[in-house]
Amino acid sequence: MNEAFAEAVPLTGTAPTEAFTELYERTFPRVYAYVASLLRDRSAAEDVTAQAFERAYRKRRAYRPGRGSMDAWLFGIARNAALDELRRRKRRAVLEVDPEDTDARAPEEHAELAVRRETVRAALASLDGQERDLIALKFAGGLSNGEIARVLRMSESNVGTRLHRTITKLREACHD
Amino acid sequence: MTDVLTAIDDALDTGVAADDDPLTRELQELALVLREDAPQATPEFRERMDWRVESGFQKPRGSRRAWWQPLLQPAAALALTGAVVLVVALAAGGRSGSGGDSGGSSAGPALATDDSGGGGRAAESDSGGAAAGPALSAPKESARSAGGADQAAATVLPPSGGGFAPGRSNRKIERSVALELEMPVDEMARVADQVTAVTNRYGGFVLNSSLSTGNDGAGGDFDLRIPSNRLRSAVRDLSALAEVRTQSQTGRDVTREHVTAKDRLRAARAERRSLLRRLEVATTDEEAEAIRRRLDLVAGEINGLRAQLRDLRLRTDYSVVTVTLASKDGESGGAGGGSFDDALGDAGSLLVSVAGWIVRGLAVGLPLGLLALAGWLVGRVVRRRQRESALA
């Protein structure tokens, strides 16, 4: 799918730090994108992303390859950190307001595309928290359905069903 | 559904929405927009993170948690509590175990009271005039009137069946003391001599004795009788002869038996006097013969009761003191360092002891561990639900 799905290097070995650096290089943009999608707050997303990588670094010897890919393991940690942050701040991860423009687009960006983005963002606001989480894991986090199943602790077929239902709902919301 | 999901994955892989089905293509486009619209980290943040990863997430000085802070975590607190309970339980178990090694004797100057039998025998007859009195006053009474300097050495508890004689001031107590002394083999003969000397000094006597200092094992047993009113001093001196391994004392209140025997003796004597008077005034040979036969019976009874009283007096006036001499661990009579059999025996004992400690530890640790596990699992589920509630 992208560079994120390169061959995983075990974290438990002779050079765990090196393996972790490789994991970081491979997943950092996606982890940040996922956390920021969930929190909708650049500053909080940076804190939580940093926290997630630090936790993963400190717990790197606890990773067991038999229990899923490293990416799923790392996203599980990031998700927990993000949910803790959401709970702590007692606010909902919603798109009730216009989402923060976390990356300034080039001015020459096509107007039609910009409108489309806004439409999709508004449609995202109609989803509930769990649906947004699923969308964020899939499209911002770039995880496969199997990896999402690991993170959410549900079956892969269940993830597929829910994903199909959610993206269909999102499409309909875009037309409303 | 599977086809749609596959088409979406294809679009994400290729970056192109090219499905023939317009609806699926629309979903592909939506997926691409969602991915492209994903937030991106600023270069500054990326730079900071790169540095942190390279430095191994080193924390600035002073920000580390204090050593005791992890102890406040519930799991750690539970584990700590469990460990404390385990240590206490093991300590308690170890103490009771050492007491059991001495064959029922309590280690040290502890006191054991034997009240079996006294109650049963005393309950047979009421002729001793033992009226039912306040039972709770009896121990105080007995302790106060035990009639010796050794009251503190042996406190007598009331027999459970109420077989004592309340109200009596001059109580009759049977006492016995068992002492186990430990000493090097080469000192055993000297200590044995001193045991006899101490016994004589306090007016007692040696009933039985045996002493062995040969190569097959050293040891000695002394069965002593020491005047009860000098028992405490004598035991003190005997204890000073060598290291005391175990010491136990027992006391039994036989006042009721004593009173009963005395009353029966008095009654028998009165009957004899009456019979003698009747014999003097007997008018026929048959009557005189019958009185004589009765007199013989009463005389036999009087003799028996006298013997019983004498025996009781002996048992209360003299205390039974048993002294056992034992060589110190690892030493046997003249053998020097111990044989292979001894070593094997010691190893076996050690293994049994270790197994005992392990069993005790498991008995305490296993339920605690299960509790901790259950608590941890419940905590995990609760934590997970709380986290998920953030998305609700």
3D architecture notes:
The complex is a heterodimer of chains A (176) and B (392). Chain A has a single domain, classed as Rna Polymerase Sigma Factor, Chain: A. Chain A is built from seven helices and no strands. The two termini of chain A are 31 Å apart. Chain B is of the alpha+beta class. Chain B has three domains: 44 residues, no CATH class; 65 residues, no CATH class; 210 residues, no CATH class. Helices cover 54% and strands 14% of the residues of chain B. Chain B contains eleven helices and five strands; from the N terminus they run H-H-H-H-H-H-E-H-E-E-H-E-H-H-E-H. In chain B, strands 2-3-5-1-4 form a five-stranded mixed β-sheet. The radius of gyration of chain B is 43 Å and the shape is elongated. Chain B starts with a helix and ends with a helix. At the A-B interface, helix 1, helix 2, helix 3, helix 4 and helix 5 of A face helix 1, helix 2, helix 3 and helix 11 of B.
